[in-house]
Amino acid sequence: MDLSTLRVGVIGVGIMGQNHVRVLSEMTAIELVAISDPNTEAFSKLRLPPQTRTYSDYSELLAHDLDAVVVAVPTVHHHSIVMKALERGINVLVEKPIASTIAQAEEMVALADDRQLVLMVGHIERFNPAVQAVKTALTHERPISISITRVGPFPPRIADVGIIVDLGVHDIDLIRYLSDSDIVDVQVQKEKTRGLREDIALMQFRTQNNILAQINTNWLTPFKERRIEVSGREQFISCDMLTRSVVTYSDYKTDGSFVTRHLSVAQIEPLRAELLAFSAAVRKNSTPPVTGRDGLQALKAALACLEEA
């Protein structure tokens, strides 16, 4: 594919879809051809480029000559929409989790491979510049353990999944990303306190390369906290994903002293970084940073957590 303007559509303009529309509208060499959502009232909230068409039926959007589409709809609809887009030869960025079931995700990955199309999954935390700083700090050291906390109040936008698939899948993907390994062992405690699905979970993991990891996540905390702590033989890394600050502690001495370093963290919106990476993969027909298989492996671990507890 050449480097000319990419023709892109967005399916689903809820909270996340609206953010995709905003960023895509600001990007150079991107033409936002069309958006779709059955709730047409949502269109009035958007500042759209004048040429962008709006549809209530995503099939009409897919009828356009598109290079790529962003799918930001409830998880239950991911499989059917992504499969139709891939069948039309359109590259896809689908929000996490990749699908509702492992079988659905496997079908999506297989079709993308068969058609030699880009299928990228929106595990946006990989593009958080603070997470990127943690990854860089681990260039020459394999972690011993990874601990992630992701807590906050209940989000009214969530209706079709519990906290493990909605939030926990973010951090399952981060564990795979920071460990450079797949998850092979899962232990979970979870509970539902307000609704039909779990809203608190404590998850423990072991990766294939023998790194221990844990996730503490809930919708019961009145404030948001997003933190990563990584223990290694040579350093301890503390990362606040909200304030985007990363501190390392190293050179431990017998008198209890150590060296503290505040790492440099880039200033870029994670969603913009994600969409730039997706558009680059589409232009080059190359492997995206978060592949369909990455999304599949994260989903497998998340569903294993639901089954294990």
| Straight-line N-to-C gap | 47 Å
On the 0 to 100 scale, the average pLDDT is 95
Largest sheet: 8 strands, mixed
* Shape estimate: globular
CATH architecture designation of the largest domain: 2-Layer Sandwich
**SSE topology string:** EHEEHEHEHEHEHEEEEEEEHH
Q: How many β-strand runs?
A: 14
What is the radius of gyration computed over CA atoms, rounded to a whole number of angstroms?
A: 20 Å
Helix tally equals 8
Instruction: Catalogue the unreliable spans.
Output: none
Query: What is the total number of structural domains?
Result: 2
| Spatial strand order of the main sheet | 8-9-10-7-11-12-13-14
How much of the polypeptide forms β-strand, as a percent range? 25-35%
Secondary-structure content class: alpha/beta
3D architecture notes:
The chain is α/β, with parallel strands linked by helices and 309 residues long. The chain has 2 domains: 6-122, Rossmann fold, CATH 3.40.50.720; 126-270 and 302-308, 2-Layer Sandwich (Dihydrodipicolinate Reductase, domain 2). It is 32% helix and 29% strand. The chain contains 8 helices and 14 strands. It has helices at residues 15-26, 58-62, 78-87, 102-115, 129-137, 163-179, 270-284, 292-308; strands at residues 6-11, 30-36, 53-55, 68-71, 91-95, 119-122, 145-153, 183-191, 200-207, 212-218, 220-231, 235-240, 245-250, 259-262. The strands form 2 sheets. It has an 8-stranded mixed sheet, with helices on one face. It has a 6-stranded parallel sheet with strand order 3-2-1-4-5-6, sandwiched between helices. Helix 3 packs parallel to helix 4 (102-115), helix 4 (102-115) packs antiparallel against helix 8 (292-308) and helix 6 crosses helix 8 (292-308). The longest helix has 17 residues, at 163-179. The chain is globular, with a radius of gyration of 20 Å. The model has no long low-confidence stretch (mean pLDDT 95).
